[in-house]
Amino acid sequence: MAEVKVAVVTAGGSGMGAACARRLAADGYAVAILSSSGKGEALAAELGGLGVTGSNQKAEDIAKFVDQVMARYGRIDVLVNSAGHGPRDTITAITDEQWHQGLDVYLMNVIRSVRLVTPIMVAQKSGAIVNISTAWAFEPAAMFPTSAVFRAGLAAYTKIFADTYAADNVRMNNVLPGWIDSLPQTDERRAGVPMGRYGTSAEIAATVAFLASEGAGYITGQNLKVDGGLMRSV
Fold first, then answer.
1. Measured distance CA(143)–CA(160) in Å, rounded
2. pTM for the full predicted model
3. What proportions of the chain, in percent to the nearest 5, are helix, strand and coil?
4. In this structure, are strands 170-177 and 223-226 parallel, antiparallel, or unpaired?
5. Separation of first and last alpha carbons in the chain
6. Model confidence over 61-118: pLDDT tens digits?
7. Which of 24, 9, 21 is CA-nearest to residue 62?
């Protein structure tokens, strides 16, 4: 009998992170979820997995989470790094403290978890890491300044990681969602999307599941836009 593969999702209690956890569980993975709200524990129980309450902005919480995953399952095959929302204001009004908060929300959340999970995947000679980024990473919008700045940094980090660990069969890619149904919907935003609608969290989860799969085994270091054509010319 084949060993069950294990997928871990950070910030997976709601929104796109929760959708990813549900999809990966449906695809046959044992799922572990880290969430600061406690919703991750409830969802993990529903999915027959492991839920831990903690913040992906705290190194000690991520370490506790990874330790519990390894104690229960002994392996990690997929890491999905989701995130909450960072500070928003006009570009010159954002304080030093808010910039540092944005760094924690959008970039350090990935760096901290990847630092712990990578040695496990290297030892296994296999692993896939998928980070939830934003469609505005390469064409920044003033409405999401901290997200755009630090997720542009995430793209650079991802390329360096991919170069470093490709020979170990450990891959990293980013998914760049546009307007998704987990966000407030407005007619103005919808009108700017060539497909004329918001995307769904389930569509993001399906993309993440593909990038985690064997079918994406030759894909690493990429930034995949899932935005209804919003950034088609960028």
1. 28
2. 0.95
3. 50, 15, 35
4. parallel
5. 46
6. 999 999 999 999 999 999 999 988 888 889 999 999 999 999 999 999 999 999 999 9
7. 9
